[in-house]
Design brief:
Length: 210
């Protein structure tokens, strides 16, 4: 199978921009988690102060300052994430491989290459096989014609040879049933099941059994 290189480029073209988006989105998540943890710690300090009566002003001031810093970090991370998304959206559109580009490549150079390199040898073998098959069919009828006069004489003689034990029929040299033929059922079986009928060996283009 010939590699469809443009398809691989199409699949990979967003990978770099996706990595950029993911990196900055993770920064937002990390900053949000940090802020949530600090707020939970702040609530825990308040509950401790209420339950014990201790003055925890210094600890509360430390947490308050940390929360303000975490809010600024989250705001900054969100702004950077928006900028990263805007950049990825704009940059990914420049020189982007579109679905239309893929279809044109498929219908044009790629399809032509597959047909030339892979289909043509198959078609050539089928043409040679068709020629050999039809020539063999003609050879069969030539054989029948060569012996038709003699067969007719033998058959007529046999028909007049009526004896007590009955009539002896003169058999033909051959009939079509003696020949291996390609039938519609064979073609249907091969096309629908993607395998050969029983008794037919699979051979490669080089003539070796697969």
């Amino acid at each position: 199978m010939i590699k469809f290189e443009l398809r691989e480029k199409y699949d990979a073209q967003d990978a770099r921009f996706s990595e950029i988006r993911t990196r900055y989105e993770q920064k937002v998540k990390d900053a949000g988690t940090r802020l949530a943890d600090l707020k939970a710690e702040q609530e825990a300090l308040l509950r401790q102060e209420f339950s014990t009566g201790k003055d925890l002003s210094a600890d509360k001031e430390r947490i308050r300052a940390s929360i303000e810093e975490a809010v600024r970090a989250l705001t900054s991370a969100e702004a950077e994430s928006r900028q990263a998304n805007d950049y990825a959206r704009t940059a990914s559109g420049e020189g982007r491989i579109s679905v239309r580009d893929l279809t044109k490549e498929w219908n044009g150079p790629y399809r032509d290459q597959v047909r030339e390199k892979e289909l043509r040898p198959i078609a050539d073998r089928m043409a040679a096989a068709r020629e050999a098959y039809l020539n063999s069919v003609l050879d069969y009828y030539d054989l029948i014609d060569d012996y038709s006069d003699l067969y007719r004489v033998v058959r007529e003689n046999a028909s007049q040879d009526r004896q007590a034990d009955g009539y002896l029929y003169a058999r033909e040299i051959a009939t079509l049933i003696d020949l291996p033929r390609i039938t519609d059922d064979d073609l249907s079986y091969t096309s629908t099941r993607r395998q050969l009928p029983v008794g037919v060996n699979r051979i490669s283009s080089g003539g070796k059994s697969k």
